[in-house]
Each structure stands twice: as C-alpha cells, then as structure tokens.
Amino acid sequence: MADKILYPHTSAGSDLYMIVFLGDTVYNGATFETLADANWANYDIGLNELGTISQLYSGTFPNVAAGIYDIIIYEVGGTAPEVGDERQAVLSSISWDGSDIIAAVTINTAVSSLNDIDASDVQSAMTSQGYTTGRAPNLDNLDQTLSTTESNIRGADSDDLKDISDQIDLISGTAGPGGDQVTLTLLEDDAVTPIAQASVWITTDQNGTNTIAGSLSTNSLGQVTFLLDDGLQYYRWARKDGVQFNNPRAFIADAD
C-alpha cells in the first residue's frame, strides 16, 4: 500500500518522528484529540532511515479514515519525544483515501534550489516505499503530461496562448491620430506574396519609443489601414512568427 511518508532530511543518523493532525486535533494512536502537552508521548510516529547514511526517512501513515491531514516532523532533542523538540518540516494537505496517500511527495525544505532535486531519485525512492503506480506522480512522464495539457488549451484553429495574446493586442490597437487613411501593404521577398495576419504598428521615431498607432493586423492581401497625416514621415514596425522584417522602415504617408 502507498501508506508511506518519505522525508529527505539534512543529515543521517537523526532520531525523527512525525505527528499527524486533523484540523486542530492530533492523532494519539487510537483517535484524534485536542493536543495536550502531557500526552505528547502518545502522538509520535517514528521515522526510520533507509540504509545508514541515505538521509531519507520513512514512516507509516496511521490507519485512519479518509480525509485531508497535516503532518509535522520533529527531531528528538533528548532521549525520547517531548514538548519542545525542534520542528523539521510541515507537510500540509496530505490527501488520504483510507488506505493510500494520494500523490503526496515530500521535498526536503533544506535544499538550496529545485535544481538540487533529482527527479529520478525521488521517483525511485517513492517506488521503493510502496507508492502505487498511478497514485504517486510519475516524474518521468512530466513532459508527456505537459504536452497533453498544451494540446488541450489550443483552439480548433491551433492557436496557442501567444497567438491569442497577439490577437487581443490587435483588437485593442488604435488606427492612429491622423486625419487621412493610409494603407500599407506587406509582401514577401518576392514582392508578390502578401503577408497576412502580421502585427503592424507605427511610431514617429526610429527608436520606437513613441507609438501612435497599432498594433493592427494585415488582411489576406497583406494590407492594413491607419489614420495618419498625409505627407509626414513615420516608421512602420511589423511582427509575425516565422517572418523576418526589416524594422523599422521609414515611409512618407500617402493618403488613399
């Protein structure tokens, strides 16, 4: 059964134990009661180190009803568990179905970064401690899970979140402050094939710090229309995945 708590500690040879909480009550070996200092010796569930220097400690979750539980891990400071022992970790919201811990993984709070955790080591340790396939999270299949999630968030037109974000930008874009309609056309290098669905915006400076129009999207003919002032110089900027634009391109507004 997947009834094991696995805790990576910072040192080997430690005398560790855990206490199981249900809300503000504590498990005393038979039932849950309001915590009382005098009964502390009834609350501890020992953790045993795997091997002699692994720093991995394992304990058995008690046979209690299904629910959401919390665990606090302590280190014995004297000869036996007592009030005042140093707390080592808090494991919150342990989901227990009456016989199995459902997808619970203990991560050592003392590691300096997530890069210090080897996924294969964690998976191996969990398997060795009786976590059942399907309940314990299989870290080796994380990429496959993410790929499945990505496919679920794509629309029928295969747009991903970036495409949707770009489209929102286009909807919220402005045509410009000028009094004349000026249509720009974007073409491929062959000067014939239109570039559709490109994001286009206009600035008054070459550095692109003063945007006055856009972004707007080109149509199927590669065209986009702004409201600019005829005869003035502007700078056109464009963006589309897979297309390399020469940004910015200076032009003189020519009213339609």
Structure description:
This protein is mostly beta strands. The protein has two domains: 4-145; 161-252, Immunoglobulin-like. Helices cover 13% and strands 32% of the residues. The chain is built from three helices and 14 strands. The chain has helices at residues 119-128, 142-152, 161-172, and strands spanning 4-8, 16-22, 25-27, 32-34, 45-49, 56-60, 67-75, 86-96, 180-185, 199-203, 211-217, 223-228, 233-239, 249-252. Strands 1, 2, 3, 4, 5, 6, 7 and 8 form an eight-stranded antiparallel beta sheet that branches. Strand 2 (16-22) and strand 3 form a beta hairpin. It is rod-shaped and about 90 Å long. The relative contact order is 0.11.
Q: How is the topology of this model organized?
A:
Layout: E1 4-8, E2 16-22, E3 25-27, E4 32-34, E5 45-49, E6 56-60, E7 67-75, E8 86-96, H1 119-128, H2 142-152, H3 161-172, E9 180-185, E10 199-203, E11 211-217, E12 223-228, E13 233-239, E14 249-252
Antiparallel strand pairs: 1-6, 2-3, 2-5, 2-7, 3-4, 5-6, 7-8, 9-12, 10-11, 10-13, 13-14
Short overview:
The protein is mainly beta and 256 residues long.
Q: Could you spell the SSE succession in H and E letters?
A: EEEEEEEEHHHEEEEEE
Strand content: 25-35%
Q: Categorize the overall geometry.
A: rod-shaped
Structural class: mainly beta
Count the domains.
Answer: 2
**C-alpha Rg (nearest Å):** 31 Å
Oligomer: single chain
> What summary fits the major beta sheet?
8 strands, antiparallel
Distance between the termini: 76 Å
Overall mean confidence score, pLDDT: 80
Q: Give helix % range.
A: 10-25%
- What low-confidence regions span 5 or more consecutive residues with pLDDT below 50? 105-117, 129-140
